[in-house]
């Protein structure tokens, strides 16, 4: 049976209907899903009911899985799953609203993820949307002068500055000096070429990109702020209103995302995320 694919935004994001992921996915259906993923960068499945094993099994269709840098949010029984829960479900530390800033996942590593698959178990009745930005469209909409300026530049990424800022605000536990020393600066192209589609996308983000190789910090900061502001214009952004049973998969190489606020004291929000290992951006 062919899937029904419905666009949710002018340039990216589509909802896929016609498959129950808990029952397994045959090769022909997976081919359709992969194509929809490459065509839209973000795909959405509604009304799913997955066990942890089923979530992991579906995710592995896209490649090898990886954990997260901060292991105290990994589900003990399934370390492939990152638990985002303000109530600390599953035996992990509570996390009120992780990622409430524009970022692409784990770009502070030499090999960032291909993408992530986020499954909503319990969501608040109001607030808590996740915003996504189309970094293909953001690059394509740059003026020619800016394209010429950024093509070939190398961005500097790190997790250390972001983590220290959040730890000082009480939003992250303090880590040992040994753990902090593991987070060194890494370098990625400011404009990458997607390995499957061949399209160019901006690959900088507010969360982890802290400089430009060979550029004075003030000049780099100004350029990055310009790119961040450009990329998060309304015309490039889709805001996903979560419902329990939603699964959203995003391509980390050509999108950014940002969590939005909700009443963490009043409502529970618990989600499970798998992360698919990628390749070095070029």
Report on this structure:
With 282 residues, this protein is α+β, with helices and mostly antiparallel strands. It has a single domain, classed as Double-stranded beta-helix (4-Layer Sandwich). Helices cover 23% and strands 27% of the residues. The strands form four sheets. Strands 1, 2, 3, 4, 5, 6, 7, 15 and 17 form a nine-stranded mixed beta sheet that branches. A three-stranded antiparallel beta sheet has the order 14-8-16. The N and C termini lie far apart (37 Å). 38% of the residues are buried.
Question: Any chance you could write out the topology, listing elements then pairs?
Answer:
Elements: E1 4-7, E2 14-17, H1 27-40, E3 42-45, H2 52-59, E4 65-66, E5 74-75, E6 78-85, E7 115-122, E8 130-134, H3 135-140, H4 144-150, E9 154-157, H5 160-168, H6 177-181, E10 186-189, E11 191-193, E12 200-202, E13 209-212, H7 217-231, E14 237-240, E15 247-251, E16 255-259, E17 270-276
């Amino acid at each position: 049976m062919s899937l029904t694919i419905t666009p949710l935004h002018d340039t990216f994001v589509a909802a896929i209907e016609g498959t129950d992921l808990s029952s397994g996915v045959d090769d022909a259906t997976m081919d359709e899903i992969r194509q929809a993923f490459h065509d839209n960068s973000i795909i959405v499945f509604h009304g799913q009911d997955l066990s942890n094993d089923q979530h992991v099994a579906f995710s592995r269709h896209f490649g090898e899985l990886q954990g997260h840098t901060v292991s105290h949010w990994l589900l003990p029984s399934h370390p492939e799953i990152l638990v985002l829960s303000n109530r600390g479900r599953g035996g992990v530390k509570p996390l009120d609203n992780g990622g409430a800033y524009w970022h692409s996942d784990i770009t502070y590593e030499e090999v960032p993820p291909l993408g992530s698959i986020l499954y909503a178990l319990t969501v608040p009745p109001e607030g808590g949307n996740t915003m996504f930005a189309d970094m293909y469209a953001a690059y394509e909409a740059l003026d020619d002068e800016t394209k010429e300026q950024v093509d070939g530049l190398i961005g500097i990424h790190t997790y250390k500055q972001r983590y220290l800022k959040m730890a000082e605000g009480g939003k992250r536990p303090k880590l040992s000096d040994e753990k902090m020393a593991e987070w060194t600066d890494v370098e990625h192209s400011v404009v990458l070429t997607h390995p499957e589609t061949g399209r160019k996308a901006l690959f900088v983000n507010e969360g982890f990109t802290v400089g430009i190789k060979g550029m004075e910090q003030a000049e780099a900061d100004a350029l990055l702020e310009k790119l961040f502001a450009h990329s998060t214009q309304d015309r490039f952004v889709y805001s996903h209103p979560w419902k329990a049973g939603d699964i959203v998969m995003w391509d980390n190489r050509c999108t950014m995302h940002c969590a939005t606020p909700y009443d963490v004291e009043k409502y529970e929000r618990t989600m499970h995320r798998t992360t698919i290992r990628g390749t070095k951006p070029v």
